[in-house]
Amino acid sequence: MNDARISAPLVTDFDTVIVGAGFAGLYMLHKLREDGFTARVFEAGTGVGGTWYWNRYPGARCDIESVDYSYSFSPELEQEWQWSERYPRQPEILAYLNHVADRFDLRRDIQLETRVTAAHFDQRTGLWRVATDRGQHVTARYCVMATGCLSLPKRPDFPGVERFAGDWYLTAAWPREPVDLTGKRVGVIGTGSTAIQVIPQVAREAAHLTVFQRTANFSVPARNGPLPAAEQQRIKADYPARRGISRDSLFGVPVAMPAAPQRTRDIPPAELRQMLETLWAQGGAMSLLAAAPDVIVDPEANAIVAEFVREKIRATVKDPKVAALLCPSTHPLGTKRLCLDTDYYETYNRDNVTLVDLRATPIEQITEHGLRTSAAEYPLDVLIFATGFDAMTGALNSIDIRGQDGLSLKQAWADGPQTYLGLASAGFPNMFLITGPQSPSVFSNMVVSIEQHVAWIAECMAYLREQGIACIEASPQAQAGWVAHVAEVANSTLMPQTDSWYVGANVPGKPRVFTPYLGGVGPYRRHCEQVAARGYEGFELIRRPVAA
Ligand code: N01
Questions:
Q1: With the C-alpha atoms ordered 427, 431, 432, 433, is the resulting torsion angle positive or negative?
Q2: pLDDT of residue 289
């Protein structure tokens, strides 16, 4: 970084601009204000909530337990908020985030209905100039991208979609007004985590539901239900310990990392069967993965657990042909997001549900009155696209971000994301990413990872202020080392082989790079702490000139 070109600090509009008002943006704002920084949050939605603002499709629910998918930064908040169910529904999470915005008086620094269109680093002043779709231009010393990992939905690009005479919906941009599906013939395209939540709900309402499946997915029952007050009280009485286990764990959930993990294939078959049956009866995708973490590394372990799940599918779905179609066969378990469901497989026992295999009979086009595959035309009144996201990099790349020498982030990441710790990118000084690519992010409980990043970024900014440092930037060498490490860890698993959004395979033309860091939430946290303790090792720090 050329420090000669950074002049004395100008007056900025804000110390920090934060993009996005979801879990990450809200806590970042609160933390920075607490630490004496000014900040402005820009949020495209008409309300706060991020992913939980947009994804209000029927059945939307978190697949992490409510008591764990919540902030830990305020013991008072933690104790006062009452969750009603084991896995929280979207409206409850959105209500929680609105409560947080009010409780910590965050709204006065949040500008809604405003999309950040550009963020340019001005080398002369060392400031970010941020532009919005409302024609505003503001300056800030820091720019924090709290843009979310799954916030840019793929637009439906099926031939003929514009001719469809019925209503169509994107799950990730579901209307705020209720959608009445009663008596309708509904089609759902997709069978990922979202569709697996939508399908049972829609089947109960619609006259007929046709599910268009390209890839069968593994799903584990949620065993959701009310969270009894006494149970919640018991958890809350011991909250610090539970949170501590999550922070030190593999996935950010309260399952301790075993000191010497037992290989699944070494567990005597009867004992393993018992363990899997217990986990199945308890429900929870993360607990299954945490109990047998070698499933994503060892093909033999994977085959055992995958076959166990297939057995459960066959035992649930009455029609053997439908069951066979629903049994995943294209990828090892867990290498696409392991889904969590309520009555997903049971739904296919209903008379008003049809499963269409798009591998055997691909979609040819959407017609005026339905959808045509290579084998048949399906008349439909409503089409629901649960077709996923341009994940991890989509939201960032949709902003015109330019760093040193006008370098665009899109250009810098043309062959895949380049970050140091998933927190910063070389060439983009004073820009921080919350749960960015190459951090545990989507392979963890997002709230735990968000809190870790927010705390690290805030501590870093306080350090820079204290030390009179104008700019911090990831060094290209440290970044290259981190990118290589992330790839090395990923390549030691079965994950990169599968076509999934983790590798960008769902977006044509996207470079195939495995993006989340698989080293585990606990080890990753310790590594970030060490980097900070060593004076931000791997970052270049540029002192502020003493006088202009
Ligand atoms: O998206 P997906 P999602 N023709 O990409 C199919 C998180 N999440 O929204 O697999 C036909 O997983 C596609 O088929 P295929 C969670 O991290 C969390 O469901 O590409 N089909 C697939 O079946 C999750 O992983 C919660 O062959 C097409 C589906 O659409 C992430 O969000 C809840 C197609 C897309 O599945 C994304 O999940 C929900 C085409 N042209 C989601 N294009 C929680 O509970 C795509 N598909 C927190």
A1: negative
A2: 82
DSSP E strands in 349-498: the ranges are 353-357, 363-367, 370-373, 377-379, 382-385, 400-402, 431-433, 469-474
Other residues' Cβ atoms within 10 Å of the Cβ of residue 280: 16
Angle in degrees, 0-180, between the axes of helices 229-237 and 239-247, rounded to the nearest 10:
70
d(CA 244, CA 402): 38
Alpha-carbon distance of 329 to 312, in angstroms, equals 14
Matching residue, tokens 């800030």? 140
Q: What is the pLDDT of residue 545?
A: 59
Q: d(Cα 94, Cα 139) in Å, to the nearest integer?
A: 30
Check if 392 has its Cβ closer than 6 Å to any atom of ligand 1. no
442 lines ligand 1 (CB under 6 A): yes
pLDDT for 11? 64
Helix then strand then coil, % of the chain, to nearest 5 = 40, 20, 45
Residue numbers in the chain where pLDDT is lower than 50: 1-9, 546-548
85, 152 in Cβ contact below 8 A? Answer: no
- What tokens does 13 get? 């509009």
Paired with 130 in beta bridges are 119, 138
Residue position matching structure tokens 């008086």 = 105
**188 ligand 1 Cβ < 6 A:** no
Contacts of 277 (CB under 8 A, 6+ apart): none
Distance 215 CA to ligand 1 centre (A): 10
Return d(Cα 313, Cα 325) in angstroms, integer. 10
Place of tokens 């009452």: 82
Distance (Å) of CA 137 to CA 25, 45, 101, 104, 130: 20, 19, 25, 27, 6
Q: What spacing in Å lies between the alpha carbon of 109 and ligand 1's midpoint?
A: 34
CB burial string 245-272: b at 16+ within 10 A, e below: bbbbbbbbbbbebeeeeeebeebeeeeb
Which helix (H) or strand (E) segment is 396 a member of? helix 394-397
Look-up of token digits 């017609």: 367
- Model pTM score: 0.96
